[in-house]
Design a protein that fits this description.
The protein is mainly alpha-helical and 144 residues long. The chain has 5 helices and no strands. The protein folds into 2 domains: 89 residues, Helix Hairpins (Orthogonal Bundle), CATH 1.10.287.70; 48 residues. It is elongated and about 85 Å long. Helix 1 packs across helix 2 and helix 1 runs antiparallel to helix 3.
Length: 144
């Protein structure tokens, strides 16, 4: 919830398409290229990202540079997103409940620019209620 995993998958998918189509454009027409169709290039993009070693080797030097760049960038994004998501999942229970609330509020404050006026009014009402709750808690603590 607090990691941009979905956004990273969207970026990864867009980059996969970009690199695969670019590789196809560079390799198209080269007689020694094993990548002869767009489907071949899309499959190459998935195989190269998976680091399974089953991707066809591009024939041209430009395509090899594109391929190497895709493997590095794609792997960093994909595996980095997975590690960040898993780490966040396991670290959340270690935080005190109050800390989780604060983290959630801080995360959501970053989204204020995207709220409509009606949503900001609801947020103001909620904040006013929170402030009243804090003041009552202080009064009760002062009575003890």
């Amino acid at each position: 919830m607090h990691t941009p995993f979905l956004q990273m998958l969207i970026v990864l998918t867009a980059l996969w398409l970009l690199f695969s189509v670019s590789l196809f454009a560079v390799e198209r027409g080269d007689p020694g290229s094993p990548i002869t169709t767009l489907i071949d290039a899309l499959y190459w993009g998935v195989a190269a990202l998976s680091t399974a070693g089953i991707a066809d080797t591009p024939a041209t030097q430009v395509a090899k540079v594109l391929g190497g760049t895709w493997i590095i960038v794609g792997s960093a994004i994909f595996f980095g997103s997975i590690v960040a998501t898993i780490t966040t999942y396991f670290m959340r229970p270690l935080q005190r409940p109050a800390r989780r609330i604060i983290d959630t509020i801080e995360y959501n404050l970053e989204q204020l620019d995207e709220l409509s006026v009606d949503e900001l009014d609801i947020l103001k009402e909620t904040t006013d209620t929170l402030i009243e709750h804090v003041e009552r808690a202080k009064e009760r603590q002062g009575e003890d």
